[in-house]
Design a protein that fits this description.
Number of helices: 15
CATH class of the largest domain: Alpha Beta
CATH topology of the largest domain: Carbamate kinase
CATH superfamily of the largest domain: Acetylglutamate kinase-like
Helix content: 25-40%
Strand order of the largest sheet: 5-6-4-1-7-9-10-8
Mean pLDDT: 89
Shape: globular
Order of helices and strands: HEHEEHEHHEHHEHEEHHEHEHEHEEEHHE
Structural class: alpha/beta
CATH architecture of the largest domain: 3-Layer(aba) Sandwich
Low-confidence stretches: 215-220
Radius of gyration: 22 Å
Largest sheet: 8 strands, mixed
Distance between the termini: 38 Å
Number of domains: 2
Length: 378
């Protein structure tokens, strides 16, 4: 058994998110029953041994496309939504039957990014998932493709799985796919396979270049989306393992601490609220800041005052996420605005003591308080 001391974070993990892609669960769009049996058996073994597991499962659109007789996963958003509606029924049915063999209940959670954009709904989703885990039930999460559009969707279940890591405070993210892990450079057909990376300590430009490559026919993401998921998970204090679902007992081996696939080590943990702000929310508007305000935010850890705001774009309300950009248009921070866009337009460039005089009220001296802000440069 091949062990690496860096892999001990895998065997120490107690709360685990497992993401399984369409390429593992389906072949040419058709569900693979034996893969479902192996997956559910591994998850039930983990739960029986004291682990808490959330499963993020792809496959609905692929399965629905097959049932509809398509050789593609839908050309338009309505077609994809229709395929998801058809396929989700079969997907959950086979999970329910497979988990029932182990006398284990499941719960279905369908999410969109827009549904988690609101902080209250984000926390409601957290409470639901944690209660399901407390009850010993296995939550099965998927994007709600039947209603999601490009504007409100996660885009791929890799990103969704990393969001779930932050949502429940997981220790480990396992991404089960159709490749062995991350190679030192993108594999090229007809050439010798490059070196498989065992452990990635930090995601550098060189690592990003190695991840470039296409996804599967029915899947949405390639290795680049898995890299971004690993980055997001690391900022939640969780490790990520990308591994090949074709390997026997791969989930069991990962949790045992074996050197399977590629391990991305956890980083310095970002507060859950700031992780939500950085990765889950969509900004509703933009404020452009002068150099002094940018320095105060990035270098001094200060809140955003109206004096440093040069211009305002978009329409946003109190509590909405807002992007903070410099005069070159680079996004440097984002945060929750204490004022609506119209009022920010009126007080931009002014001293904080002038807010009440101009607006007739005050929500405080800060347009964005430091506690409600995340610095993107970090």
């Amino acid at each position: 058994m091949d062990h690496n001391p860096a892999r001990e974070c895998q065997s120490r993990a107690r709360r685990i998110v497992i993401k399984v892609g369409s390429s593992t669960l389906t072949r040419n769009g058709k569900l693979r029953p034996r893969k479902f049996s192996e997956l559910t058996r591994s998850i039930c073994e983990l739960v029986d041994s004291g682990h808490e597991v959330v499963l993020v499962s792809s496959g609905a659109i692929a399965a629905g496309s097959h049932r509809l007789g398509w050789a593609h996963r839908g050309h338009s958003i309505p077609e994809k939504q229709a395929a998801a509606a058809v396929g989700q029924i079969g997907l959950v049915d086979i999970y329910q039957r497979r988990f029932a063999r182990h006398r284990r209940q499941i719960g279905q959670i369908l999410l969109t990014r827009d549904g988690l954009h609101d902080r209250e709904r984000f926390l409601n989703a957290r409470h639901t998932l944690l209660e399901l885990l407390r009850l010993g039930t296995v939550p099965i999460v998927n994007e709600n493709d039947t209603v999601s559009t490009e504007e409100i969707r996660f885009g791929d279940n890799d990103s969704l799985s990393a969001t779930i890591v932050n949502l429940i405070g997981a220790d480990l993210l396992i991404i089960v796919t159709d490749v062995d892990g991350l190679y030192a450079e993108p594999p090229v057909s007809g050439r010798p396979r490059p070196k498989l990376l065992d452990v990635v300590e930090q995601i550098t430009p060189e690592i990003e270049a190695a991840a470039k490559g296409p996804g599967s026919h029915f899947g949405r993401g390639g290795m680049t989306t898995k890299l971004e998921a690993a980055r997001m998970a690391a900022l939640s204090g969780a490790a990520t393992v990308v591994c090949n679902g074709r390997q026997a007992n791969v989930i069991r081996r990962v949790v045992a601490g074996e050197s399977v696939g590629t391990l991305f080590l956890p980083g310095e943990k970002m507060a859950s609220r700031k992780h939500w702000l950085a990765f889950t929310t969509h900004t509703r508007g933009t404020v452009c800041l002068d150099d002094g305000a940018i320095s105060a935010l990035l270098d001094d850890g200060r809140s955003l005052l109206p004096a440093g705001i040069v211009s305002v774009q978009g329409e946003f309300g109190v509590g909405d996420p807002v992007a903070c950009v410099d005069t070159q248009g680079r996004a440097r921070a984002r945060g929750l605005s204490a004022y609506n866009s119209g009022d920010v337009e009126r007080i931009k460039g002014l001293a904080a003591k002038e807010i009440t005089q101009v607006l007739g009220y005050s929500n405080g001296s800060e347009v964005i308080h430091r506690d409600d802000m995340v610095i993107l440069d970090d």
